[in-house]
Amino acid sequence: MRKFLLLCCTLFLLSACSVSEKYQKIPSNETVDEKKPEKVEQKAPVTKDKKISVAMIGDVLLHEQLLHYKDYSPSFAAVEDDLQSYDFLLANQESMPVGKAFGLSGYPKFASPDYIVRDLKEAGVDFLTVANNHTLDHGEKGVLAALKNIESYGLPYVGAYKSAKDQQKMRIVDVKGIKIGILAYTYGTNGNETPPGKEYLVNRIDLNVIQKDIKEIRPNCDVVIVNMHWGIEYQSKPNAKQKQMAKAISNAGADIIFGNHPHVLQPYENIVANDGRKTHVFYSLGNFFAAQQDKLTYVGGIASLEVVKDAAGTIQVDSPRLIPTAIIEKNGVYFVEHLKDVEKQAVRSVDWVKDTVGLDE
């Protein structure tokens, strides 16, 4: 009997040990040996600065010798790589592209073929300014026809408008995340008056209006460009009025001023506004493509700047540059060339351009 009891006690103890081992193997949050997952530190994504190039070419003015080209692309081929290299390129289309319906004509009342817009766009132009002394050469009908043609080729415009509503629409272009606002004005329209009540057809220079326009567009964009059709023809230095207006436009909030109308190059200037900002002024870019009698107008330039927007939204406009260009006639056909490549044929040298503008290529 005692042996039997001893046997039963032994079996019971062995069973208890087995159950105890079983339950000890169940995972527990309190198990000392358990490895907890390591915390992975999430790094904020690195925000890179945004950087673009902004540029403008001078007057596109189709005189009689240039009216009947079927395609202007060959005329721009030599500088096309430069034109297409910029992120945003403006051009002053001075002779209105009204088309054949108005009868093509040169000076003094220009009527240019509409496809000059097509070929400028293909060459790299992104935006046209059309506030100049020839805007009203063919009156209201001419403005409306020209703007319709410009729109048909998919280019935006500034300085002349179809209606008051069109004029009130801010011209702001987003270029790779940097918003550029564009304004344009002309000193006059060669005595061609604006029809009463239709002042929207062309923007005229009025400092009060310009300052108001800059104040309105400034909060909506990163960079403000103002195109001014001003100055005295064939003068290679800005006059006192240009200087005065440039200072006022700078203080109003403009970052860049591109000038046209003199048909020759004028200096670059860096103006410091009252609030400490820099305003880059190219007083005149000369002619890009034209055929005036005065051969001194056959030299112009491509002006450019770099715009940088950092992660904090701070904007810096810098690195002003001008590439000199020359209009060269070959067997009755006119071409835009790099001045350095045709210096022996041109009326001005690269050194003259450097001395006049104050910038190296």
The CATH topology name reads Purple Acid Phosphatase, chain A, domain 2
- Overall structural class, as computed from helix and strand content, comes to alpha/beta
Principal-axis shape equals globular
Helix proportion of residues, in percent? 25-40%
Largest sheet: 8 strands, mixed
- Portion of residues in beta strands equals 25-35%
Mean pLDDT: 90
| H/E element order | HEHHEHEHEHEEHEHEEEEEEEH
Outline the low-pLDDT stretches: 1-37
Tally of separate domains: 1
CATH architecture grouping: 4-Layer Sandwich
The count of DSSP E runs of length 2 or more, i.e. the number of strands, is: 14
Tally the helices: what do you get?
A: 9
Backbone CA Rg: 34 Å
Can you identify the CATH superfamily? Metallo-dependent phosphatases
Distance between the ends: 118 Å
What's the CATH first level? Alpha Beta
Protein name: CapA family protein
Organism: Viridibacillus soli
Pfam families: PGA_cap
Family: Belongs to the CapA family.
